[in-house]
Amino acid sequence: MVIDLLRRIFGGKQDVAEYEKLRPGRVVAHGTIKGGEELVRSPLKSLTCVAFYYRAWYKAQARGKTVDRVVKEAEVYAPAFELAMEGGTLRVAPPKSRSFDAAEHRQLMGRFPGFQATEQLIRPGARVKLHGSVARDGDGFVLRLKQIDLPKDEGEEGGPYRRPEKRRKRRK
Known about the structure:
This protein has two helices and twelve strands, in the order αββββββββαββββ. Helix content is 10%, strand content 51%. The protein has a five-stranded mixed barrel. Strands 6-5-9 form a three-stranded antiparallel beta sheet, with no helix packed on it. It has a two-stranded antiparallel sheet with strand order 3-4. It is mainly β.
């Protein structure tokens, strides 16, 4: 029992594709997204999805160079959804997110010259890897979501579905 507790706290992530192999602790769960009762609508493409990441920026001149000035970043999740795995379905508890809709996107478009925006969608039926921590919930399990990874062929850019790291450039 103590060993299991120490393994959950200090151990690495379990890489799991089968529901029967799930144990409480940090995990990377493989499966297919199933939408819940309520989905969110993306602001650019107006498609229903389980989650989306939105980024808006404009080009600006700074010290003789053109730079991207980020205006808005939004990571929005549906209130609840599930991951279909081999042998069962895992309930997913996404992080709390503020809503962002097409009206807010249109409002940003009119304010900045050279405005550009992109979004990355997670739609029901997408094959994904979910990073997070699994906990018991009654007879089953629930995953507290930290990050979603899309395979390269599913997403437009592929790779991790998370806010990009902000890096500062060195001055010369």
